[in-house]
């Protein structure tokens, strides 16, 4: 956990940092921080400048995850969907996926105006406490939703106990209308609208959401929903066309069974 917290600190500061800065900022003991940083240097993930006595991540870190964006892109134009939806709605748009009891934002695109409150890529929130999560939960059966609520309570993930009956009332409405609208959440001045996608990432559920300042989302809700539905329908049609085209391709030599 400390290794990742060190790396996230560098991602936030974006500059070389000295030992005392790192352990002071993170609240770690000096001795264990020294040992941790030395190990990361020996593994090639941090560079140590002996003259300035500072640390800086190396390009080896980039190699760990630079394939992910291309991998997602190969799965079917998710990035283009997000960018077009952001352009049309002029609000923050993101794709989220289920990660155990949480949703995690894979990538987000923000508008250029100041009326926004954008979480960083990779941010995680509880499934039961987010519009993206509720939209995905509406695709689950009731037993699976019950387990999610019980596990969330068991591990005391939420600030207050999750009430299954209240969650199911909201889930029933989402199933009826096909989207989840979370007004004034996770903060009073923010709202979001999410729709579960038919497409998944190798079996991992996905949803797409539009969020922004509550007043703006409330005022433009009907238009935002119309845009989301239009673009999702076009996205699904493109994916279906690609699948059909692939299915029509003749077998490569040697693929067919010999008679």
From TrEMBL:
Domain HTH iclR-type spans what residues?
Answer: 1-59
Q: Which Pfam families match?
A: HTH_IclR, IclR_C
- Could you tell me the keywords of this UniProt record? DNA-binding, Transcription, Transcription regulation
Matching entries from SUPFAM superfamilies are given as: GAF domain-like, Winged helix' DNA-binding domain
Q: Which domain of life is it from?
A: Bacteria
For whether the record's keyword set contains RNA-binding, the answer is: no
Q: Where is the IclR-ED domain?
A: 60-255
Identification of the protein by name? Helix-turn-helix domain-containing protein
What is the organism of origin for this protein? Sphingomonas aurea
What phylogenetic lineage does the species belong to? Bacteria, Pseudomonadati, Pseudomonadota, Alphaproteobacteria, Sphingomonadales
């Amino acid at each position: 956990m400390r290794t990742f917290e060190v790396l996230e600190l560098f991602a936030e500061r974006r500059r070389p940092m000295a030992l005392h800065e790192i352990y002071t900022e993170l609240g770690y003991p000096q001795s264990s921080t020294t040992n941790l940083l030395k190990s990361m240097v020996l593994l090639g993930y941090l560079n140590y400048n002996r003259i300035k006595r500072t640390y800086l991540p190396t390009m080896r870190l980039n190699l760990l995850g630079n394939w992910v964006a291309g991998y997602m892109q190969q799965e079917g134009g998710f990035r283009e969907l997000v960018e077009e939806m952001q352009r049309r709605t002029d609000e923050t748009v993101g794709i989220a996926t289920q990660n155990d009891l949480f949703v995690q934002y894979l990538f987000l695109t923000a508008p250029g105006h100041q009326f926004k409150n954008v979480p960083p890529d990779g941010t995680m929130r509880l499934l039961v406490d987010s519009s993206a999560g509720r939209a995905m939960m509406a695709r689950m059966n009731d037993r699976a939703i019950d387990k999610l609520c019980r596990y969330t309570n068991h591990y005391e993930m939420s600030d207050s106990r999750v009430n299954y009956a209240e969650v199911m009332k909201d889930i029933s409405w989402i199933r009826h209308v096909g989207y989840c609208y979370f007004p004034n959440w996770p903060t009073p001045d923010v709202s979001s609208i999410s729709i579960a996608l038919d497409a998944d990432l190798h079996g991992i559920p996905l949803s797409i959401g539009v969020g922004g300042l509550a007043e703006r989302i409330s005022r433009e809700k009907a238009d935002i929903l119309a845009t989301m539905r239009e673009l999702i329908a076009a996205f699904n049609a493109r994916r279906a066309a690609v699948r059909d085209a692939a299915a029509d391709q003749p077998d490569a030599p040697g693929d067919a069974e010999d008679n």
